[in-house]
Hints:
Elements: H1 4-18, E1 23-28, E2 49-55, E3 58-63, E4 67-72, E5 77-82, E6 95-99, E7 104-109, E8 114-119, H2 142-150, H3 156-160, H4 174-181, H5 194-213, E9 253-257, E10 260-264
Antiparallel strand pairs: 1-6, 2-3, 3-4, 4-8, 5-7, 6-7, 9-10
Helix pairs in contact: 1-5, 4-5
The structure holds zinc ion.
Amino acid sequence: MPELPEIMNIASQMRECLVGKTIADITILQPKCLNTAVENYGKTHNRRIMDVEARGKWIVISLEEDLLLLVSLGMGADTVSYPPGSPPNTGKYQVRVQCGDGSGFTLRFWWFGHFHMVQKADLKDHLVGQLGPSPLADSFTPELLASILRTSRRKVKELITDQRRIAGIGNAYVHDILFLAGLNPLAQGSRLDGGATARLHSAMRELLQRVLSKRGLAYERDFFGNPGEYGREDFLVGYREGEPCPRCSTAIEKIRFGGQSSFLCPSCQPPVK
Ligand SMILES: [Zn+2]
């Protein structure tokens, strides 16, 4: 499932390819991925694409006159561009966006995704308008992280993957973030001291930046159909149950809580007393 690094990578490629172009047509073959009637997407016609950015696990495409297209790739998707003059994409897709110059892109959700449209003024009523800050934003300081952790008595793993508190971290990278920070996933977020909060802050940024520099996971594809370079061998403890911890060689454990698995080193991330 794509998380912040994959989405940032695709959004920046889309920005380079699409900004300045106008939308000529949108073809929708799976209306259940929409938040409004198919015919309303006619509003996008002849509007120029002004910007494309990542908001957590969503891609936000801003059009002229404050109209926004919001794309969630769900469990994964092929978001593939095609150049001007190429024949229409005949592959299986749910959504196709055609630009005025004949280029465009298609969305093929692996499982299920969203292709929503809202006016910017109504964004506050949409999930995207309620997302927490990006952990890679300049404004995401250790103080901001501390204030987010203080708001709840929930476990640190639940807190930092709650998209309304911090946007973009999910089950791919949370295990290695907590390992880098030396924190047990079951620790209560509001009880982390200043040192632990600072470690968590730098672990988030270091890990996500590392994945971003490798253009995302090896089994996800970018806007040009190329895979990322962050492979299984790059994971530290995530999905490595039974293998030695890269720091102390203790066997990595898998524990379950809240219906989900967590991977950790029991020595480097001791349980909280
Ligand atoms: Zn260890």
